[in-house]
Amino acid sequence: MFSILNEIGKNSPLRTTGVAVASIGFAAMIYILVAITGYLSFGNAVSGNIVGMYGPSMTSTVAKAAIVVLVMFSYPLQVHPCRASVDAILKWRPCKRVESPNSSPARAAPLLPQGKLTSQARGDGMGETRFAAITTAIIVLSYIVAMTVSSLEKVLAYVGSTGSTSISFILPGLFYYKISSPESPHHRRLMKENDDDHWDASDDDDDEGLLGGSVKGSNWRKNLLRRLSLALAIYGFVVMVTCLTTNTLFLTAH
């Protein structure tokens, strides 16, 4: 979503939602088409890599070449966020901040510290040595996995068990639960921006309504959403453990 927001010229909520729905819907249609044609061709004997089950032909050769091109061009795109994430994890330190509970940060304050980069640092704030070390480690580990694991089915099974559940359930729930916390500086900043945007357009009647029963309703809704987000993250952990256990037992038995 961050990449989509950065690339869209006018990243309004409507356009962002439209791009996300269109891309996910198109991918879902392709997945459903491949799944239906695979079961129609092989029935219950279908394997994890359906392209390898078809005999030598022009169509299967084109499909295999498309997979090669996909892996070749998608690998650098996957390494870039992976390297940035590893660097952020290595740089992370617990931050102790002492702020007044009634104070809110300035609206113009940046979310990230704006430090001056030295001449030896890259544009993303990562030194050349650190950049090379993290990139080399990622490539070496990827090469070891590629040379030792011969079944694409196993890779997709474990990637789906961990990555899909994390992206779909665990991380969104944890992110919302963390950001929506009243003690979070990001939450106070968002609330301040929301108040600033609607302050000029509000009149005395609206102020009375906001200070009246709507505040209780808003607080009740926020508390409910926080509990639901935490429940979503817990559900994701349960799904991840269940899928990992099932895949391990299935792959061991076969």
Please explain how this structure is put together.
By secondary structure, the protein is mostly helical. Helix content is 72%, strand content 0%. It has eight helices and no strands. The two termini are 38 Å apart. 2% of the residues are buried. Residues 103-113, 115-121 and 203-213 have low confidence and may be disordered.
Order of helices and strands: HHHHHHHH
- Classify the secondary structure makeup into a structural class: mainly alpha
Largest sheet: none
Number of contiguous helices: 8
What's the quick description here?
This protein has helices at 2-7, 13-42, 58-91, 128-148, 152-179, 185-199, 204-211, 213-253.
Give the tags.
254 residues; globular; 8 helices; mainly alpha
Secondary-structure blueprint:
Blueprint: H1 2-7, H2 13-42, H3 58-91, H4 128-148, H5 152-179, H6 185-199, H7 204-211, H8 213-253
Helix pairs in contact: 3-4, 5-8
